[in-house]
Amino acid sequence: MKQKKFARVIRMAVLPVLITALTGCSGNNTELPADTASQSGASEAVQESAASSEAGTAAESNTEYIIRLGHSDTEDNLLHISLTHYAEWVKEQTDGRVLVRLYPNEELGDNTEMAQQLVTGELDAMMMPQGVEATYAPKIATLGLPFLFSSYEQAWAVMDDQEVAEGLTEGLDDYNLVQLAFWENGMRQITNSAREVNTPEDMAGLRMRIPDDSMTASIMKALGAAPTTFSWSRTYEALKQGTFDGQENPIANIYANSIQDVNKYMTITNHKYESKNLVFSSGAWNKLPKDIQAVLQEGAKTFGQEHREAVASAQDEQLKELKDAGMIVNETPEIDAFKEATRSVYTNFELQNEWTVDLVAKIRAITAQKEN
To answer: Which domain holds residue 359?
Structure first.
């Protein structure tokens, strides 16, 4: 896959490796559960390389806490770039006491697997897409209802409303989860290698890769496509081999993963919004001192805002580069037809959840103040 760099973003230097096993630190140091060698296959998968790269550095390191944070995106993705800024800022604010170690590109498992590792305490933190998070906090799936938002500003206003935000994450604590902040994934678009998509009828029969997200599955089925849940890190090869005709994702992800090399067509539908959120295992979180928690919380909000703005501001330039690379982009599909075709998604969601009508009404009241 072709690696790309977005011109407006200067990537942080690779974080220096600072520490060996925490058992070599002083008695006051905390060893977060995910750093224990025997706890999971995901931990074991990175043990050898971590140990070899860190050898000989413990004596000069004053790191007390290692936080293992996994996500599914590439190192070229704007999310990973903002996470490196977050990790460096946390290190500076804590005078080196805290090392946030990043594991991108599904190194520790796909999003569903990493979420399960949080629940069991085998992983400290991850960037959790709202579709996966809805398994543990069902109300957050509401953000993904088709065409609920017409702009990023509308979606952000909803997530910045404290009352609504607390409701969206309700239930996480029942699963040993703590959300620090809403980050970004983005407005989702459709790509495929079969044909230009202008109406819902053009979606008929398209084999679409989708994330582990029941709302996305409902939308794709309503449009007549054939969706299948599949790992994001393996999607490029699956598209290249013809396992799928297409996929749907925000422009930032399409760009970072060079999807234009394997899908000729893109349709700007903005059919669904998705957040991707910084979530901790409460077991790891509760072992941290209050002052460290405060730093992590503040930074999560600050760099979540940075990532949010980066995704939105980069979109036009990224789309231009995708076109320049040969991607055929339909920016004016028959959106009203897409909205009509997905009305059943609302009906079914309301039937499944008695709180849907009231929550959607609250969201629409907020978004009405942000109408374009």
So the answer is: 22-370
Q: Determine the Cα–Cα distance for residues 175 and 52; give it in Å rounded to an integer.
A: 34
pTM of the complete model = 0.85
In a domain, 4, yes or no: no
Examine residue 9 and state whether it is found in any structural domain, yes or no. no
Flag whether 317 is in a domain. Answer: yes
Which segments of the chain are extended strands (E)?
65-70, 98-103, 125-129, 177-192, 207-210, 226-229, 246-250, 265-267, 273-281, 328-330
Q: How many domains does the chain have?
A: 1
- Tally of CB atoms within 10 A around 328: 13
DSSP code at position 203? G
pLDDT tens sequence across 121-132: 999 999 999 999
Task: Give the CA radius of gyration of the chain.
Answer: 21
- Residue 261 domain flag: yes
Q: How far is CA 249 from the centre of its chain?
A: 11
Question: How far is Cα 130 from Cα 85, in angstroms, rounded to an integer?
Answer: 23
From the number of C-beta atoms within 10 Å of its C-beta (0-12, 13-18, 19+), residue 205 rates as: exposed
| pLDDT 10s digits, 241-286 | 999 999 999 999 999 999 999 999 999 999 999 999 999 999 999 9
Residue count of the chain: 372
